[in-house]
Write a structure and sequence with these properties.
single chain, 93 residues, Rossmann fold, 3 helices
Protein backbone atom coordinates (compact mmCIF):
# COMPACT_ATOMS: atom_id res chain seq x y z
CA UNK A 1 0.00 0.00 0.00
CA UNK A 2 1.13 3.53 -0.69
CA UNK A 3 0.10 6.67 1.12
CA UNK A 4 0.34 9.37 -1.54
CA UNK A 5 0.65 12.76 0.18
CA UNK A 6 -0.44 15.75 -1.91
CA UNK A 7 -0.08 19.33 -0.69
CA UNK A 8 -3.60 20.66 -1.21
CA UNK A 9 -2.19 24.12 -1.98
CA UNK A 10 0.19 22.90 -4.71
CA UNK A 11 -1.67 19.94 -6.18
CA UNK A 12 0.00 17.40 -8.44
CA UNK A 13 3.76 17.87 -8.70
CA UNK A 14 6.41 15.99 -10.66
CA UNK A 15 7.08 13.70 -7.70
CA UNK A 16 3.35 12.90 -7.50
CA UNK A 17 3.42 11.48 -11.01
CA UNK A 18 6.64 9.59 -10.28
CA UNK A 19 5.11 8.03 -7.18
CA UNK A 20 2.04 6.97 -9.15
CA UNK A 21 4.23 5.17 -11.69
CA UNK A 22 5.97 3.32 -8.85
CA UNK A 23 2.65 2.50 -7.18
CA UNK A 24 1.15 1.10 -10.39
CA UNK A 25 4.20 -1.07 -10.88
CA UNK A 26 4.57 -2.42 -7.36
CA UNK A 27 1.36 -1.98 -5.37
CA UNK A 28 -2.34 -2.75 -5.34
CA UNK A 29 -3.64 -0.22 -2.80
CA UNK A 30 -3.41 3.54 -2.57
CA UNK A 31 -4.62 6.11 -0.04
CA UNK A 32 -4.41 9.79 -0.97
CA UNK A 33 -3.70 12.22 1.86
CA UNK A 34 -4.56 15.83 1.12
CA UNK A 35 -2.10 17.58 3.40
CA UNK A 36 -2.08 21.10 4.83
CA UNK A 37 -5.85 21.63 4.82
CA UNK A 38 -5.38 23.80 7.89
CA UNK A 39 -3.52 26.31 5.68
CA UNK A 40 -6.74 27.07 3.75
CA UNK A 41 -9.12 29.66 5.23
CA UNK A 42 -11.97 27.81 6.87
CA UNK A 43 -14.65 29.38 4.66
CA UNK A 44 -12.88 28.06 1.53
CA UNK A 45 -11.72 24.70 2.89
CA UNK A 46 -14.65 22.47 1.91
CA UNK A 47 -14.69 23.75 -1.67
CA UNK A 48 -10.90 23.43 -2.03
CA UNK A 49 -10.96 19.84 -0.77
CA UNK A 50 -13.83 18.99 -3.13
CA UNK A 51 -12.05 20.51 -6.15
CA UNK A 52 -8.77 18.76 -5.35
CA UNK A 53 -10.56 15.40 -5.01
CA UNK A 54 -12.22 15.98 -8.39
CA UNK A 55 -8.93 16.96 -10.08
CA UNK A 56 -7.03 14.03 -8.62
CA UNK A 57 -9.95 11.73 -9.38
CA UNK A 58 -9.65 12.57 -13.09
CA UNK A 59 -5.94 11.73 -13.02
CA UNK A 60 -6.35 8.57 -10.98
CA UNK A 61 -9.24 7.34 -13.15
CA UNK A 62 -6.61 6.53 -15.79
CA UNK A 63 -4.62 4.37 -13.36
CA UNK A 64 -5.27 1.12 -11.54
CA UNK A 65 -6.43 3.24 -8.58
CA UNK A 66 -9.61 4.79 -10.03
CA UNK A 67 -11.36 5.48 -6.70
CA UNK A 68 -8.90 5.63 -3.82
CA UNK A 69 -9.89 6.89 -0.39
CA UNK A 70 -9.00 10.55 0.23
CA UNK A 71 -8.01 11.73 3.71
CA UNK A 72 -7.81 15.49 4.38
CA UNK A 73 -5.07 16.14 6.92
CA UNK A 74 -3.53 19.08 8.73
CA UNK A 75 0.11 20.13 8.59
CA UNK A 76 -0.20 21.06 12.27
CA UNK A 77 -2.81 18.74 13.78
CA UNK A 78 -5.07 20.00 16.49
CA UNK A 79 -7.52 22.86 16.74
CA UNK A 80 -7.08 26.05 14.77
CA UNK A 81 -8.17 29.40 16.30
CA UNK A 82 -11.77 28.75 15.19
CA UNK A 83 -11.83 25.54 17.23
CA UNK A 84 -11.95 23.24 14.18
CA UNK A 85 -10.09 19.96 14.78
CA UNK A 86 -7.79 18.63 12.06
CA UNK A 87 -6.49 15.07 11.97
CA UNK A 88 -2.76 14.43 11.87
CA UNK A 89 -0.72 11.49 10.61
CA UNK A 90 -1.19 9.62 13.91
CA UNK A 91 -4.94 9.69 13.28
CA UNK A 92 -4.50 7.90 9.95
CA UNK A 93 -3.51 4.64 11.67
Amino acid sequence: MMILVVDINKGVQTQTAECLVIAETLLNNLVVVLNKVDMIPEEKRVDKIKKMKENLGKILAKTKFPEPPFVPMAACPGADPSGTEHPGMDDLV
